[in-house]
User: What shape does this take?
Amino acid sequence: MADHERSTVLEIQNLTKRFGRMTAVDNVSFLLENGKLMTFVGPSGCGKTTLLRMISGLTEPTEGQIVLDGEDITFLRANARDTAMVFQNYALFPHMTVSQNIGFGLQIRKKPKDEVKSEVERLLELVQLQGLGDRKTQQLSGGQQQRVALARALSLHPKILLLDEPLSNLDANLRVMMREEIRKLQEQLHLSIIFVTHDQEEAMSISDILVVMNNGIVKQIGSPTEIYERPIDEFVANFVGYINFFAGTVYSLSGDEMIFRTEHGDLAIQQPPMQVSPGDRLKAVIRPESIGIARPGHQTDAGKNVIEGCVVSNMYIGAIIRYTIAVGDQMVYSLNSLPWIFLPKLCLLL
Amino acid sequence: MQHSDRYFTKIVDDTRQFFRSPGLVAVTTTAAILIFLFIVFPIGSVLQKSLTVSYPTVSIHYRHNIATPGDLEKKLIQPVMAVLSSVPGLVKSNVVRKDPQTVLILLRFEKFWDDLKGLNDAKRAIRPIQATIEPLIEEVKYKLSKERIYSTETYKDFFANSYYWHSLRNSIILAVVSTTIITVIAFCLAYVGLRGPRGARGPLRMIGLLPLVAPPFIFSLSLILLGGRSGIITKLFDLDFNLYGWPGVIIAQVITFLPLGYLMIENILRSLGTNMEDAATDMGATDYDILFKITIPLSFPGILKAALLVFLLSIADFGNPMLISGNVHFLATDAYLYWVGENNLEMAAVFCVFLIVPSMLMFIIHEFILKGKSYTTIGGKPQQGEERSIPSKILYPMLAVVIPVSMVIIACFGMIFLGAFTKILMINNAFTLEHFNSPNGIRALITSLKFALGAACIAPLFGVTLSYILIRKRIPFKRVLEFLSLLGFAVPGTVMGVGYILAFNTPPIKLTGTFLIMIINEAFRNLSVSLEAGSSKLHQIDVAIEEAAFDMGASAMKTFFKIVLPLISSALLAGFIYTFMVGMIAVSAVIFLISPGNDLAALYILAVAEQGMLGMACAISIMLIAVVLLCLGALKLVARYTRTEVY
Assistant: This one.
């Protein structure tokens, strides 16, 4: 096995899917390394589920190639592929018990009964459902059903595990718990996983690599840090939680830094990932938690990148406060856990 | 343009995908062949038959020893043709020279001429010249046969004679009148049954559904006992009036088809919920306003659907007109009479075509125009609003409709019991059990059981499998296949009976006279119910469940047998129960197909009743109802035991 181990488990080349005139997935290419968790993330209808279904074999691509572990599987049907999928609604077989559900794939492959039984026991333990094997699936809670679906998918030791919005039917607390568990399982079993979600926070927290999609097109591929720190365009920036946009022009470049001139004043910022030169019209984005607030006249830490504004409203979100600040005719948002509270209508320095 | 383009690419896409899975191709092709063979082909045969006319023919072969063609013409052919021209009934004659030694003379006679008579006439005509042609010939052979040609002559006949087209007119009038009455009564019954006085609801529901278990003509039987020439009411009040003819047929049909209308309309009213009516009340509408401006308009599409189905059943009805129509003629029964009584197959086929036309019209309206048109979903699920009670000014008029109808239904059932247990009702009212002692009747009951079980095994399996292919798979010309499979239900039983004989009377597929043809006919006629049951169940099941099985490595076949079939077992059971019940009381198509020794209970009852042995007819009806109820009870037990839900 070991000498066969490849670093790339999945290779997607120019994959396209058209439904009539509608292009659901448009010329997508990427590589997935072995043992990594990749997330397809994007708004609903962006093509992420179609992409996942093409990898699973449930949808046939119009063009392109899918290579799994060195083997071209583009036209292999789903039941012949070494992939396993966890469906959004779990798709548990309602006429079978938990054990029968988990053992289904093994049974189909005509494995001996006792082998199936011990494997099912092992999987039940793995997903912490010991003793629930004889239950009907309808008698389980949402989280438990999720675990059964996961165990069922893992039963065949797939080369790649596909999760289609697996957490969207769970309530908020459970969702966070389950995603941590999936991550733990993935690291423990060294699984290659593709995870589809529309929730950017979920995507950022769970994945090694993010694939941000919109309208069937891959916008950006990268680690959560890369995507967060260096979003490639306005869409990605917006999607990963940037909401403060400043339009302006590049004034000067020096080393890593760039002076960016906006109508509210100059900003000294990091060089963007793409090639720029002075005079280019760009939009700068600033994360709300990167915007500090100070009273007029107060000394700020950096002494630069200061813009004047007026607090319009404040709102508690858990332990932090979200300020809406008017800068000229533009609204700017800031997340802060400042020891004192600024009241609306107070003019501020940013 | 763009639209058709997209449609075209879809078909191409579907076809490409379709041919990639050989299993699906095999199953779909089999299904398509079966549908074509057992639904389309028989109907097509009827259409073809209606457009043909067959003439009796006589052919005369002369083997001669005349050397020259000129001599042959002068000495043999001319004299023979001259005398033949005087033969009565002859339409056309022509001469074919087959080889130097043989001459064939073909004689075609008028449409209804007896060919044997034609033969004798021809022989008689030739006799005077026999002596002169005898030395010239070696051998003469006469042959009888029929010549079939395409012609619209039968249609012309149909419209030329009032006794033909009056049947069509009567059938349509009957269907319109019955449907209207049933719709009104069913609405009242459902309305009062749902919202009327609490104590009355249960009994009303039972009365509404009671006729469902009875053979479809049992009410004609009891109406004859009640108001026939020597019926109870006719005799007691010494009336000069009896129910034979229009009144009888209409009343019998109303009772027979009421359950269907009632069930459908009750379902609509139930899902309507009360919140829209509450809203109207809140805005100041009066009770009449609410009924006529809210309730009825909202349930109208559903009511129309129910009415169309009742129309279909009424026009196709066979048993009731057979027993109680007196001398009023209707299409379905007349088709049978022309077929069996006069052996006028062409006219029977034309009658069948006129049965098909209105049925198809209703079916197309139902399937394509009304499908999916319903307001009942606007309110979502049936809301648990506060129950609305009917105000008395609406309740009383409705009760005035519902109570008499209920009484007639109960009286009809009562009559069956009275008839079964008395020697001859109203003539000798002594109690007796002798009517139940009918070996033929019991034999027919057993045959019916086998027949119904046979059909009930085929129809659900095929129907549900078909529904799976149609709903889950991408196959080319899906809509066409679906439409054709539903035809068996839409087309009246009489047509399917005639069609089966026409289609399967000759090789390669000769099935007439067998028990199998009856079962196949019944199964394919009732395919659509299993198909619908399967479809509605499949719509409730998440596709992802099947995809999951497929993804886990199960083949398409394994997925179907291990996942789909267990999940839609309730649809199978529903299809089984329906086909079985309908099979037990089947009349209209099988009456053409029965063979000696394969008499069915419902047909036997009909035959016995027609011979005037009403007591025995009642007794066998009671036994039939008992058997149906027993079997249903047994099935319920099985369903409970296996925890399969039946709906």
Strands of chain B lie at 52-64, 90-99, 102-109, 137-150, 422-424, 428-431. The CA atoms of residues 203 and 308 of chain B lie 27 Å apart. The mean pLDDT of chain B is 81. Chain B touches chain A through 21 residues (CB under 8 Å).
